[in-house]
Amino acid sequence: MSASSEAGPGGGQADLMVPSVPQPAPKVDGPGRASPIWTWIGVMPFFLFALLFLILPTGFLMVGAFQDAQGHFTLANMRDLFQENTLDAYWISFKVSAASAFGGAVFGSLLAWAAVHGKLPGWIRPTLLTFSGVASNFAGVPLAFAFICTLGRVGLVTVLLKKYADINLYSTGFSILSFWGLTLTYLYFQIPLMVLIVTPALDGLKREWREACDCLGGTAYQYWRYVALPVLWPSVLGAALLLFANSFGAVATAYALTGSSLNIVTILLYAQIRGDVLHNQNLGYALALGMILVTGLSNGGYIWLRSRAERGRR
Predict the structure, then answer these.
(1) pLDDT mean across residues, the chain
(2) What's the farthest any 2 CA atoms get from each other in the chain?
(3) Beta-bridge partners for 73
(4) What is the spatial distance between Cα 222 and Cα 135, in angstroms, rounded to a whole number?
C-alpha cells in the first residue's frame, strides 16, 4: 500500500511531512516606501520654527547681555543683575512661581486622582479634561480682567461676601494686586495644566498592583506608600517643575493685573526694554538671560524626571 493511501486520521504518516520553512518577506522598494529626503522635508517646518523663534532670539539675547548701548563688550549688565532691586525682583518671582507650582501640583493631583480613580460618574473625567485643556491656555489680559471683576474691590465675589456674609475681604489685608492675588490668579491655569500632565501617570497605575497588594494583606496606606507613590513621584515632581517654569516666565497676566505695583522680574524686564524711565535694553537682555537659565534648569529637571517615570512604568 502506498504512503498516500495510509495517510489520514491516526494513520501515522502525518509525522513524515516535511515542515515548511518560513520565507522572509520580500523587500518593498516601490513607491510605497517613503524616501528619507521626504521624511526630512516633513519636519523642516518644525526646525524652521525652532530656529526663528527659539534659537536665534536666545542667541541674540546672549550676545546683547554682554554688550553696552554702543555694541561694545561689557560685564556691567551682569553686575547689575546683583543689585538689590534686581535680586528682589527675582526673589518675588521665585516665591510666586514656587507658591503657584506647589498649589497647582497639590490641587491638580487631587483633581486628577478623583477623576481617574475616584469612582465618579463617567462624564466627570472628559468634562474635567476638556475644561483643563481650555483653562490651561487662558491667561494674559482676559484672565487678569476676569479676576479683577471677580476679586477686585468692587468685584462680584467681594461684594457678595460683604453683603451676605459680612466679610470685608480687603479689610483682612488681601489685595488682588498683591503677592497672594497674583498667586491665586496663576492657580487658574496652573491647576488645569497639572491635571493634564499627571492624568496619564495615574492611568499608568495598573489595577493588578492594587489587587496584588490586597491579596497579600496590604492596606491602602501600604499600597500608596510602597507601590503607587514610588511610581508617581517622578511624574508629580517633574510636573511641579514645569509649573514653576510656566509661571516664572509669565508676563502678560502679571503686567495686566498688577502693573508696576508688584516688582517681579518679568515686569522689570518689560520696563527695561519698553519703558521710558528705566530704559536699558542690554540690561533687559541680561535679565532675560537669567530667566532663561532658571526656566531651562526647571525644564531640564522635568525632562529627566519624565524619562525616569516612563522607565519606571515599563
Answers:
(1) 85
(2) 111
(3) 67
(4) 35
Sign of the torsion formed by the C-alpha atoms of 142, 134, 185 and 92: negative
Residue 312 confidence (pLDDT): 64
Q: Which of 15-24, 96-105, 233-242, 299-308 has the lowest mean pLDDT?
A: 15-24
Confidence of residue 25 (pLDDT cuts 50, 70, 90): low
CA 150 to chain centre: 26
The torsion defined by the Cα of 27, 30, 34 and 37, in degrees rounded to 10, comes to 110
Which stretch of 7-21, 83-97, 194-208 has the lowest confidence by average pLDDT? 7-21
Q: What is the pTM of this model?
A: 0.81
Query: In sequence order, which residues have a C-beta less than 8 Å from that of residue 77 and are 6 or more positions away?
Result: 65, 66, 67, 68, 282, 283, 285, 286
Give Cβ neighbours of residue 313 (< 8 Å, ≥ 6 apart): 201, 204, 231
| Cα 91 to chain centroid, rounded | 22
Domains of the chain: 48-137+189-313 (1.10.3720.10)
| pLDDT tens per residue, range 250-273 | 888 998 898 878 889 988 888 888
> How far apart, in whole angstroms, are the C-alpha atoms of residue 101 and residue 248?
10
Q: Is the dihedral of CA 300, 302, 304, 307 positive or negative?
A: negative
